[in-house]
Hints:
The chain is α+β, with helices and mostly antiparallel strands. The protein has three domains: about 5-230, Rhodopsin 7-helix transmembrane proteins (Rhopdopsin 7-helix transmembrane proteins, Up-down Bundle); about 295-450, 2-Layer Sandwich (Beta-Lactamase), CATH 3.30.450.40; about 535-690, Heat Shock Protein 90 (2-Layer Sandwich). Helix content is about 60%, strand content about 15%. The chain contains 19 helices and 16 strands. The strands form four sheets. It has a six-stranded antiparallel sheet with strand order 6-5-4-9-8-7, with helices on both faces. Helix 1 packs parallel to helix 9 (about 210-225). The longest helix has about 70 residues, at about 425-490. The chain is elongated. It starts with a helix and ends in a 6-residue tail after the last strand. About 35% of the residues are buried.
Amino acid sequence: MNIHFLNYIIAHVLVGIVPVCIGLMVWVRNRRSYLYTTFLLYNFVISWWGLFTVLMQLAPSPAVALFFDRIELLAIVFIPSTSLHFTLEYLRKARQFKPAIVLAYCLSVLFFILVFTPYMLTGVSTKGFIKYFTDPGPAYLGFVIIFSFLMTAVAFAVYISYRKESEPIRKQGLLYFLIATVLGVVGGSGNFLVPYGILIPGLIPYGTYAVVIYGVITAYVIVHYRLLDIRVAVTRAGIFAIIYLLVLGVPFWVMARTGNGWISTIFAVLLASGGPLVYTYIRGRAEAILLKEQRKYHKVLADFGAVLSIIKDDNKRLFGIVVLKMSEVVDPQFLAIYKYEPRQKAYIRESVLSTEETVFGEKISEASSLVQALKEKQRAVLGDSAGKEDIPPELMVLPFFVAGELYGFLIMGPRKNKIGYSLDDVNVFQSLAIQISLALENCLFFEHRRQLEQITRQKSIDNLTLSMGHEILNPVFAASLPLDTLERLLKTDFKDRVPEDIREYCINVLNSSFASLMRVKKLIDSVKEFSGQTSGEFTEISMDAVLESFCVLFNVLVKHDSAFFEKVVEPGIKLKGNKIHLEEVFMNIGVNSLQAVQRNEAGKKNLLLRMYRKDNEKFIIKFTDNGCGIDSAMLQDIFLDFVTTKASSLGTGMGLARVRKIVEQHGGKIWAESKGLGQGATFVIELPLLGEKK
């Protein structure tokens, strides 16, 4: 058997098997993907061509060979149209060039019909070392011209897209796709000259192997390029081709040399049995060398995930640690963590480390395709495997689930070294995502416990305050009684015995002392009221009474901090609410403002409280200070749980969150206004007047 004919058969056997297998492997990853479907269709017609070419060469007679040739051509006429369709899908230009795709398919259908007529082929005959090949009819030349035009257009379209692409990862993928396309077009096109007796040396039969290589590289480009280092793809394809070239080729060679079918059959059985084992062993050794660095950082990430459970701080610190470690080990172009915020019904960016602008920005809606894909798959995914068109395919996303709900996720861009993410990477990142989810549950548990401890301590302090109030009031009452008695005696029994000027002086002193004692009593009563328990029931209350109780306590703090406090209040405002809770609102905001002016070293420490009716339904409370101000990026976040602009020793981030909840319970809303750091701040509360629905 001629060695060239042997390679011709082997090459077409590979073409008949490999492309359709690759197409199916790609398609089952995401059956809804239009790109994967067109890739399967393209590979199917190529395998059809390869399979029936082999059957044509093995035909016992020219009549049978002609039958197989017609069946073969039924698929060949669709190669240019399916190639154009798939390529434009990959280049994301299928909609733009839809008329061209439709025209290409119409031409394929026309030639499909002509296959059954002498216009396409008149018979089969020997061409060089090839036993049977097409004798072309007049329409065959037209098909060759259209084939050449469309395949050249395909290669040119890939080249133009490669030149125009600016994103590095996408550009590199296009480069590999361009190389594969040129290999496939050049390697396969030589077969269309054979009907005219032109057998280009080297290209026929060895160029047909390039069609197999095209399928392998293209599959990895569209599915695994960002999943797999291209070195691994080429290595696997090369090992596969060499091993199975031996498996298929040696029996044919033995048959040609010995003419003994039994010996060639024995060789075929032995090689077919040992081929997969040899392929697996050699592939494993090669990948161990190529992926040495990758497996090294996999171990680092596994060790990192194992120690995350010891973190007991808030999730912000946990996210910060994760971002820094992933940046150090994986070194992506950008990295960001998003956490769910129920009030905004979106995932808000918490931590970010980037050398360029991230893809999704500050906020991602819970209705977005990315979030829906994460909820559906519940594991680490790459953008292209998420099955959503608006998700960039080069992204790696790690979801965090707490109590079965998507609490947040980490988004990583492509690596700076341009090596794609492997399937092993996805598995390692999934394990890390589970460890981060457990660490988040741990942080939330300890945070909840700290809250309970804080509430318990506060209750203890409140009880102690009430007890101390009682203890202080007892001597106040004891001191007030003799003062009252002395004043009464000076005005009655001692009126004539004590000189007038001395008597008036003593009465004034007694009145002053008595007023001081009453001021102490009023202060203690306010402290007891503020520290006391409340049923939470809403009753009709006057804002004048709320402000009076608040000012008794707040004026002491203002005086201690040497601040200037002014209030401009419209009297007579009433609402239905809880007096103690509203006092808590004023006290929290007031203390925040006092701390803000303390951090402002320049000028006076001014505080201004204003309250007025907005209209017949609502009234406004404004608390303004000239303190350190609020960064514009924090204005929306300061009312969230555990968010604070102060040092950890000064605040827990719960005060303003508590204020927001109380205001919302009263049917109102609260927001902050500030021109920036060092520009002071104003807290604005809007509440409904008495009688309005809350």
